[in-house]
Design a protein that fits this description.
424 residues, alpha+beta, 2 domains, four-stranded antiparallel sheet, 13 helices, 15% strand, elongated
Length: 424
């Protein structure tokens, strides 16, 4: 087989321009297939590891998926807030071990601001129940003396260059509109969280009292005309929050999760919803499943078109190479050798194209990882290919080799006389 491989390689090199275009198509198809599978795997992994150890997420009555998206993943916004009196009633339930309120809605340079309590750093878990850790500094005190203290996530600190002791200001809402910055009440960074690979990395954490303080002279999403309350004077006001966005709840026993969930749903004070994070994520995957299948189908069609182009190019070249193949037959090559020659050429193009697509997919993941982490809190981890990715790689390679056999079968059926005396 060594001479055949040498002849196939030289023949492919002689037609390198045409075959390189086919190889580029195969590389593109492989890149799309492998990148989509990597993104699907890492998105699911990132979402599933974003919160653990939390038994229920409580918020205003809305859809379970929507509640999870804005309360945990900082995507979208709440339809309504919930009263602190309601959360106190939930916290007083005999099955509840801890409750951490969360207030959302403000931002800092496009990053979400999370108003919470120091208990957040104690009870929040991610991944395999890993606790939050501080890479630098400490958690905010949650007292009036430490009213304007902030703890930033790892991505915020890295991209904006924050260290403990530096100052920052928050913006009302997304901060896209002019005049929405709370510039009169700056915060001091007191801590930087270690990387988690979750939306925590791109969040700025402050106390609930701080959220109340920066909005004392605001109403309806705008500053009150003629009213300015200085940062120091804000401490003289009642800064206990009346409403928050949601709450993370931990139970004394997982067996009580459905009991507490029903109790929250039947709470008469206001309409509330309690969702199990795992169940809400399953619903999210069901919603996204149709889109995933559509993308996979489109990518598969791209792969089919690329392989069809390989068959077309080899078949078109076959008509021009009939005399060449007949000469090979005349010097002793059997029909199976001619068939193997064309199959090897197709295998070379398919292998190089698939390898290029795999390398391109890995490079794209490295380049897109910072943007996905910053924009959506999704971490693309540089890791060895998964079993599914290996399967797609092998399937693309095998399909290309099978496609190359079709012209080989055609060449196998050509007689020696066809090549030496081609029809005119």
């Amino acid at each position: 087989m060594t001479p055949l491989w040498s002849i196939a390689w030289r023949s492919a090199w002689h037609r390198r321009l045409t075959l390189s275009l086919v190889g580029a198509c195969i590389a593109l198809a492989s890149l799309l297939l492998l990148s989509l599978e990597r993104l699907r795997h890492d998105v699911r992994s990132s979402f599933s590891q974003a919160v653990s150890g939390t038994d229920l997420v409580v918020g205003a009555r809305t859809g379970p998926v929507q509640l999870m998206l804005y309360a945990v993943f900082r995507i979208g916004g709440a339809t309504n807030n919930i009263g602190m009196d309601s959360l106190k009633a939930v916290a007083a339930h005999r099955a509840v071990a801890w409750l951490v309120p969360i207030s959302l809605g403000d931002s800092h340079r496009g990053r979400p601001v999370v108003g919470t309590t120091p208990a957040y750093f104690e009870h929040f878990r991610y991944g395999e129940r890993q606790p939050l850790a501080l890479a630098e500094g400490r958690a905010f005190a949650g007292t009036l003396d430490g009213l304007y203290e902030a703890v930033v996530g790892a991505e915020v600190a890295q991209s904006l260059g924050y260290r403990p002791g530096q100052r920052l200001t928050l913006s009302h809402g997304s901060g896209a509109l002019p005049g929405t910055e709370h510039a009169d009440k700056p915060f001091t960074v007191v801590g930087v969280l270690a990387p988690t690979g979750t939306p925590v990395d791109r969040s700025v954490h402050v106390s609930l009292q701080a959220i109340e303080a920066i909005h004392l002279d605001w109403a309806g999403g705008a500053p009150l005309p003629g009213l300015t309350i200085a940062a120091g004077q804000a401490r003289k006001f009642d800064l206990e929050p009346k409403q928050v966005t949601a709450a993370l709840v931990g139970l004394k026993s997982r067996a009580a999760v459905f009991v507490v969930q029903r109790w929250v749903a039947d709470y008469e004070g206001e309409p509330l919803l309690a969702v199990l994070p795992g169940v809400a994520l399953d619903e999210l995957w069901q919603v996204l499943g149709v889109g995933e299948q559509a993308l996979q189908l489109m990518t598969a069609l791209v792969a089919v078109v690329s392989l069809a182009s390989l068959v077309a190019v080899v078949l078109a070249g076959l008509e021009q190479r009939r005399r060449e193949l007949a000469v090979l037959r005349a010097v002793g090559a059997a029909p199976r050798h001619v068939m193997a020659l064309l199959a090897i050429e197709g295998a070379i193009v398919t292998t190089l194209g698939t390898l290029a697509g795999a390398l391109g997919s890995a490079g794209l993941a490295v380049l897109a990882a910072p943007w996905l982490q910053q924009a959506f809190g999704i971490q693309l981890t540089p890791s060895a290919p998964t079993a599914a990715q290996w399967g797609l790689f092998a399937a693309t390679l095998a399909a290309g080799m099978l496609a190359a056999l079709l012209p080989g079968v055609r060449a196998y059926r050509l007689s020696l006389a066809d090549g030496l005396s081609p029809p005119t």
